[in-house]
Amino acid sequence: DTGVSQDPRHKITKRGQNVTFRCDPISEHNRLYWYRQTLGQGPEFLTYFQNEAQLEKSRLLSDRFSAERPKGSFSTLEIQRTEQGDSAMYLCASSLAPRGELFFGEGSRLTVL
Amino acid sequence: GENVEQHPSTLSVQEGDSAVIKCTYSDSASNYFPWYKQELGKRPQLIIDIRSNVGEKKDQRIAVTLNKTAKHFSLHITETQPEDSAVYFCAAIRGGADGLTFGKGTHLIIQP
Fold it and tell me: Is the CB of residue A54 less than 8 Å from the CB of residue A38?
């Protein structure tokens, strides 16, 4: 499968715990994005990488959230001290061009109890 | 920042009829407007996009129109089929930014 893959697909955690999601983009794509989607809403932009550089961060990305893309390939999104409001689907996407098609992964669904 | 409003939130049409979904955006510097389709439990997928130097774009049964003056753009689906049933999201992005701003989505239901 040469699409965007995300792991884990589902994560249930208790409030206050830390969680980490991984995204493997399409191999030739140098642009990688993280979005968050809640039920009945469109995806909300969180952050963007071009190669290993994090170039843009949304105001939604509080200091409990951190994202990395250490070698310009896979990326991780960590949420520290999770809160119930963090429950959502976390979508990763990659693209080849600045205004090109975003290829989304299947998402990582987080449930915070 | 950019704000994208999408209407209606739910649209039910008879199979074979046309469907129109409308979006407005707030940032006059926005210059790229894609539409994504998300089937239940699946990832969003691009179906069509338009750039600000073009007023209309068509791809088989799907078309998108853009009115820069009024800051709105619309998705038109003709001869709707059952497989068109999904949630459709419009989005916009301004020059110099990289994160798309999505609308809240329209749940399109095709009645047999």
Answer: no
| Angstrom distance (rounded) from CA B90 to CA B45 | 11
> Tokens 């998108």 appear where?
B64
Q: What is the C-alpha separation between B27 and B99, in angstroms, rounded? A: 14
- What are A59-111's pLDDT values in tens digits? 888 899 999 999 889 999 999 999 999 999 999 999 987 778 899 999 999 99
Task: Spell out which residues of chain A touch residue B98, defining contact as CB-CB under 8 Å.
Answer: 31, 33, 48, 50, 55-56, 98
Peptide bond into A70 cis (omega under 30): no
Do residues A101 and A93 make contact, with C-beta atoms less than 8 angstroms apart?
A: no
Chain B residue with the nearest C-alpha to that of A43: B102
Closest by Cβ to A42, choosing from B31, B51, B89: B89
Give the residue from chain B lying closest to A42, CA to CA.
B104
- CA quadruple B21, B31, B39, B105: dihedral positive or negative? negative
